[in-house]
Amino acid sequence: MSLSTSFILLLLITIIPLIFFSYQSSIKIIKKQIQERVESIVNTGSFLIDADVHNRIDINGEISNDDYEEIREAIVAIAKVNTDIELIYTVKKIGDDFYLIADLDKLESDDNSTGEIISFDSEEAKNEFNELLYVN
Fold this sequence. Notes:
Blueprint: H1 3-48, H2 51-56, H3 65-81, E1 89-94, E2 97-103, E3 116-117, H4 123-132
Helix pairs in contact: 1-3
C-alpha cells in the first residue's frame, strides 16, 4: 500500500466516527431544545388558560360564550407569540379517553369540535400523549 493510500485510509477511519459522533450529539441537542421550547409554551398556556374555565367546558359541546372567548383569547395569544407553531389545542382527559376542547384551526369557524374524541394509532402513542399532558 502506498503512503498516500494509507494516509487516506487513516483519515477516513478517524473522520467517519467523528462525523457520526457529531451527528448524534447534534440530534440530542436539537431534540432537547425542541422539548424545552414545547415545555415553555405549554407552561405559558397553563398560566394563560384558567383551569376552572377549561374544566367547565362540557365535552358534549356545552360551552358558555364567556368561557369559550377566554379560552380562544389565550390560544390566539399563544399563537401570536409563537408564529411558527401550527397546532395549538386544549385537551380534557376523562377516564382513558382524551377529548379535544379547543383547537386553534377551528376557533374562527363555526365548528369548534368541542368534545371530539382523539384517536390514536397505537397504545404506545396514547401513552406518550398521556405523558405530555403532565409536563411540569
